[in-house]
Design a protein that fits this description.
Layout: H1 2-19, E1 20-27, E2 30-37, E3 47-51, H2 58-65, H3 67-74, E4 77-81, H4 94-110, E5 117-122, H5 124-135, E6 142-146, E7 167-172, H6 183-193, E8 201-203, E9 215-220, E10 229-234, H7 252-260, E11 271-275, E12 281-288, E13 291-307, E14 312-317, E15 323-329, E16 336-344, E17 347-355
Parallel strand pairs: 3-4, 3-5, 5-6, 6-7, 7-10
Antiparallel strand pairs: 1-2, 2-4, 8-9, 9-10, 11-12, 12-13, 13-14, 13-15, 13-16, 16-17
């Protein structure tokens, strides 16, 4: 009996070592620490950076977010870094540099996909997610702050991201620590930065399958370069992480990951074509989640996607009803330049797109 208990304990210990590891390296002259959860057998996996709130640490964030279980199911790496003195430098570059070095470390050790690196966090960790969106948009595919955005105008109009950054933000309506009252104004700045529609599409209750849910979803999209912004408001919730302990209408980590996996870097550049001073024919296209989304100011008759040799890869043909926006599958596994030939009632236009 005792031998069996010892053997079981040893197996569990080995399994824990297989999946998780603590680590450290020197950044900015200081030793920085983190915990990484790495499911076995992954090849070129996504990376989620999950950051703790002020006064916390990576271990506490790990317990609260429970991203480990998601990582096992969805096959990604999750890392929980520790801030200096249990907080994050959201006004300077110390932690931006640390987190970029952490991404390099995860790539060197575990071969993570640099096109699928995501940042999320609770409270001050959420603020740090926004800091990365401002300062390292070329490295971060999307962010998912929970109960955290910069207060007092920090990272406001002065934030100039290198690209539109997809955002899902989760917040309680009764949050009196990171005030809910200031969230709308801050989100509106990102709506403007990302070129999103100014009016959100509302889903309430969310999810619709839960009629008693106290969550409201605001959707701003589709924005520039296929980005989008989602705000989930939990009515009556204080400063908390939904789904961390006990029952909740939503699970923050599940919502954040579902959003993340729909976004990546290195997909297809936006294609754009226009004619005339008043854009008598204007066509734009972007890639998202295995599909091309295309819009035109004129009624679309047909579309074909070709490689530079003229080989047709994908086609679309309109039905009897006129359309100005279409979505169709596209295989993005082969890198290179492709052509989208769009036929409408006035003629046709060609857009160049690049698969990285």
């Amino acid at each position: 009996m005792n031998r069996a208990i010892v053997l079981t304990a040893s197996i569990l210990f080995l399994a824990a070592n297989l999946f998780g590891q603590t680590g450290s390296f020197v950044s900015g002259g200081q030793t920085r620490t983190f915990y990484a959860h790495v499911p076995s057998g992954l090849q070129n996996p996504p990376l989620v950076i999950s950051m703790h709130g002020m006064g916390g640490n990576g271990s506490q964030q790990r317990q609260m977010s429970r991203f480990d279980q998601l990582a096992n199911r969805e096959n990604f790496v999750v890392v929980y870094p520790d801030g200096i003195n249990s907080q994050w430098d959201i006004s300077g570059s110390t932690d931006v540099n640390f987190l970029l070095a952490l991404i390099d470390t995860m790539h060197a050790r575990h071969g993570i996909d640099r096109n699928r690196v995501y940042a999320t966090g609770f409270s001050m960790g959420g603020m740090m997610s926004y800091k990365l969106a401002c300062s390292a948009a070329d490295k971060i595919a999307a962010i998912g702050p929970v109960a955290g955005y910069p207060l007092g105008g920090m990272m406001g109009r002065s934030c100039s991201p290198a690209r539109p950054v997809p955002i899902i933000h989760i917040h309680g309506s009764k949050d009196s620590v990171v005030f809910f009252s200031g969230l709308a104004s801050y989100i509106n700045q990102w709506v403007e930065k990302n070129g999103c529609p100014g009016t959100a599409q509302i889903t309430q209750p969310y999810p619709e399958s839960k009629p008693s849910s106290k969550v409201k979803k605001e959707y701003y999209g589709v924005c520039n370069q296929g980005s989008e912004i989602i705000v989930l408001t939990v009515e009556g919730m204080e400063h908390a992480y939904p789904g961390s302990f006990g029952s909740s209408d939503i699970n923050a980590s599940e919502e954040v990951w579902a959003f993340f996996k729909a976004h990546s870097h290195g997909s297809i550049d936006v294609g754009y074509f226009s004619t005339g001073k008043r854009h008598s024919r204007c066509v734009s296209a972007f890639y998202k989640a295995g599909k091309i989304h295309l819009q035109s100011t004129q009624e679309i008759r047909s579309i074909r996607v070709m490689d530079l040799g003229g080989k047709i890869i994908s086609t679309f043909k309109a039905g009897k009803e006129p359309v100005r926006a279409v979505t169709f599958p596209f295989n993005r596994t082969a890198r290179g330049v492709y052509l989208i030939d769009v036929f409408d009632i006035t003629g046709h236009s060609v857009l160049n797109i690049t698969v990285h």
